[in-house]
Amino acid sequence: MLNNNHIEIIKSTIPLLESAGPALTQHFYQRMFSHNPELKDIFNMTHQKTGRQSVALFEAVAAYAKNIENLAALTTAVERIAHKHTSFNIKAEHYQIVGHHLIETLRELAPDAFTKEVEEAWTEAYLFLAQIFIDREEELYQLREKATGGWRGTRRFVVTDKKPESELVMSFVLTPEDGGKVLDYEVGQYLGVQVTPSKGENVEIRQYSLSQAPNGENYRISVKKEGNNSDQLGLVSHYLHDEVEVGAVIEILPPAGDFFYTEVNKPVVLISAGVGCTPMQAMLQQLAKDGKSDPVTYLHACENEQQHSFIDEVDTIVSAKGWNHRVWYREPLSAEGINNSSTGLMDLAQIKDALPTNVGHFYTCGPVIFMDHVVKQLESMGVERERIHYEVFGPHANL
């Protein structure tokens, strides 16, 4: 049990953690995968090779140590991570493995400072946090398993439609092989997709936002082709685009995610860039389906017309509803563009008078640099943080 003495010892090790930096978690992952290579079939190995996951884990460990006396400050992060873990089918026994290698990493990197007292404190602190995750994740697993159309672990889905949405984005409609119903979800959530790419060495799990409103019959994900089809970037997306055809069977984990639309009977603005439009597409469909009476605005930014996904689908919805719509092309291919389009980066000042900055809720998704750009603009217009909701792909970042 974590006591006051443990807490004080954890706090005293913060300078040690900060001096070690992400090298600590790099050592941890190297150690763990060396001793437990089976975990390579669970963890995103691309993030391992690019270093993104090591940085994310270090920041999480440091945040835990710094908030050891105020764990309520980590509630949002715990919920986000718990959802992500369930999309990888993380189990209680995995926490035992991770905990062992974390303690051994601390011992190996700081043998002089890692006394018995420090070991006891960090062991208790890890077990305490691990149990929080185990309990919350089990709640999520049971909720999804018991719900209509729900399941636990992976379920076999057939690709029943495959459609290009733009130059780089491909949509896949996934229907249960067993012919049963599918679990409903909140618009904005994602699916865990488990595949074994022909050019890969491991089973790979990726998360892709659901890009349509729930219908109880199937799911749709829309995948951007990333990188150059290497183990550094794009391995899974290239496999899906180039090799997975209609009729193929894919293992799917239930919908998850703590970023989703919540109705508050206020105007709403959906803001996306690039493939960040996928969760917004689900939200847009749901708002139309629900007959949203408050004003809706849909703003999107992308490289050019060829990389603009869901053009016709969005136009059909916003035209029928009379909703506001605007697009920014960073480098348009045509001088004419489309209706309500601008050139360059998204500049909300151009449409400030049309935005519900006093009462509206703003949902945004896209690359971190875009998200930061949008949030700063909204805050400069007086929009409070509690009315700005965002999703970042990959290891999470705070804006």
Automatic annotation (TrEMBL):
Heme b binds at residue 85. Its EC number is 1.14.12.17. FAD binds at residues 190, 206-209, 392-395. The record marks 84, 391 as: Influences the redox potential of the prosthetic heme and FAD groups. Residues 1-138 form the Globin domain. Keywords: Detoxification, FAD, Flavoprotein, Heme, Iron, Metal-binding, NAD, NADP, Oxidoreductase, Oxygen transport, Transport. It is an enzyme of class 1 (oxidoreductase). InterPro entries: Cbr1-like_FAD-bd_dom, FAD-bd_FR_type, Flavoprot_Pyr_Nucl_cyt_Rdtase, FNR_nucleotide-bd, Globin, Globin-like_sf, Globin/Proto, Hmp. Residues 152-262 form the FAD-binding FR-type domain. Is involved in NO detoxification in an aerobic process, termed nitric oxide dioxygenase (NOD) reaction that utilizes O(2) and NAD(P)H to convert NO to nitrate, which protects the bacterium from various noxious nitrogen compounds. Therefore, plays a central role in the inducible response to nitrosative stress. Belongs to the globin family. Two-domain flavohemoproteins subfamily. This is Flavohemoprotein. The gene is hmpA.
